[in-house]
Amino acid sequence: MKKMIAFAVIAMALLFGNNVYAQGIDDDIVLPSEESIAADNASITESGNLDDADIAARFGNAEEQTLDFLGLPFFDAPSLWKMLILFGINLLVCWIITHFLYYPKSKRRDYYFTYLLFSTAIFFILYQLQNMKIEVGIALGLFGIFSMIRYRTEQLPIREMTYLFVLIAISIINGAGMASSYASFIATNVLFIVLIGVLEAAGMSRHKAQKIITYEKIELIKPERREDLLADLKERTGLDIVKVQVGSIDFLKDTAFLKVTYIPDDPEPNDIDMITKFKKR
User: Fold this and answer.
1) How far apart, in whole angstroms, are the C-alpha atoms of residue 98 and residue 111?
2) pTM of the predicted model, to two decimals?
């Protein structure tokens, strides 16, 4: 949390310093007077118009300076620098969220890997789409491809799914470029980090799990003996149970199905929590 606050303060300080420096540059600029403009125009009129050869000799030939193939330049320095700067900001923000906010509680390296690569892929897709003249339907169809991605090995927990959606949203914002100004661009990323940090510090993402239990002491399932039932379940299972729900009751076998909600020690989800019987092969 302290590192997150320090990063936010440094970002705001850099932004403020950049604005002060830009303001100082604006103050140092001296606009030409009307007399100097008139004198320049008179000198151009006396010397006559410059032909194409003189312009090429003074400023160079733009067609010769730009190398391209099929209408696409081989090297565009301003566009390359813009892409690298935006990518660096996006990767830094996604890494801070994943490393300092998500990973300390979950300890899931598989999602760590997924989040960083997923956000990088979304960023470059959005950034490259800016240079393409495509219709809205085609753009939505491209992003619809991601709807086919299924995590078939296990169910995606709600916390991991939320982080994935947040990182996708941040990558879309950063990949689309700056909406209005540097201030709004940086503030959007910083606000994401601060909000997630506050919610994590407040324990809003506290993970809970559920388990199905076949219980034989049906005399304890009565509503007036709920405290005794909780105490017995905590003692026998060793789990930090916070809620118990009574399901079907079998009086012939003196058993009942209970669904208990507990706070797990291991942040990694248990895939067989809700299984009561394995299928015979």
Assistant:
1) 9
2) 0.59
